[in-house]
């Protein structure tokens, strides 16, 4: 298929482009390069031998995006593009709603006009809100007590996609709720490389390992968990990317479907630190600090629906993710 990947130079997007090309799909990337680098195209080429066609377009530039859809036919869209910094979204809600929601509306209008009838959407476990914790499955309530505008935009976009699938019976929508993506491509050429100050655990761990940040702050060790630190479901980004290939097959049938993409196993912050230290052979400087508002003690996926319906499950471990992250870091030097 010819597939348009929005946000395709980003962390999860670029790993997905590699897997799509490995499966023989023709990939074009639409990205505004706000939180990614154009050099990723060359890294993708080094891995697969193909450089994806690249369009530097912002989802808010409706006319330019419409010209792209008018110029060629896409069989499917995989939609990653969006702002994703939780803390920043609390300070800048209007920017997050405009960028993520209006951008998606522009994309969906182009898809309707040019009869592109398959979309896979990058959603997040954050849509389960703070009323659900522990093992989360797709039947649970979403959209209640989401603690940040970023998560709210993901929930709103899920609702928009479900409504559009109802109004356009030929449209197939697959919503993928990611848990905590970590790791890097085994080649060491692709990995998490956000611009600016990272929020998530692993990019901070990476900055500490590089000496750019002095110590990792552990946000609280007084939670009701075995070692007192929060538990999350860390999924290797290559497993996550392969989940999109499995989802692509599910777009053969119209309607809207939702799947958790997670390992089904939880790891605590201290366990992640230990796994990183085991992989690097060096201690990672860290200390306990105050809790971060909004953090839940334990969240991990029930991945059984994706296993049952997509025949997909994670194959890589947290140890693999730490090994590949360190390899990526060493490759940056
Ligand atoms: C993981 C754990 C922190 C940083 C977020 C978003 C969610 C999704 C995934 C996009 C928590 C602890 C972190 C640090 C720490 N993003 N931590 N020190 O909060 O589970 O989910 O990322 O879809 O939308 O909410 O991930 O990586 O921020 O935190 O102790 O410097 O690491 O307390 O327990 P989180 P995270």
From TrEMBL:
EC number: 5.1.3.2
Pathway: Carbohydrate metabolism; galactose metabolism
Enzyme class, first EC level, given as a word: isomerase
Keyword Disulfide bond set for record: no
Domain NAD-dependent epimerase/dehydratase intervals: 3-262
Top-level taxon of the source organism: Bacteria
Keyword NAD: yes
Catalytic activity field: UDP-alpha-D-glucose = UDP-alpha-D-galactose
CDD domains: UDP_G4E_1_SDR_e
SUPFAM superfamilies, per database record: NAD(P)-binding Rossmann-fold domains
Pfam hit, one: Epimerase
Keywords from the named record: Carbohydrate metabolism, Galactose metabolism, Isomerase, NAD
GO MF annotation, one: UDP-glucose 4-epimerase activity
Cofactor(s) needed: NAD(+)
NCBIfam families reported for this sequence: galE, PRK10675.1
Protein family: Belongs to the NAD(P)-dependent epimerase/dehydratase family.
Subunit structure: Homodimer.
Protein name from the UniProt record: UDP-glucose 4-epimerase
Natural source organism: Candidatus Nanosyncoccus nanoralicus
GN (gene name): lnpD
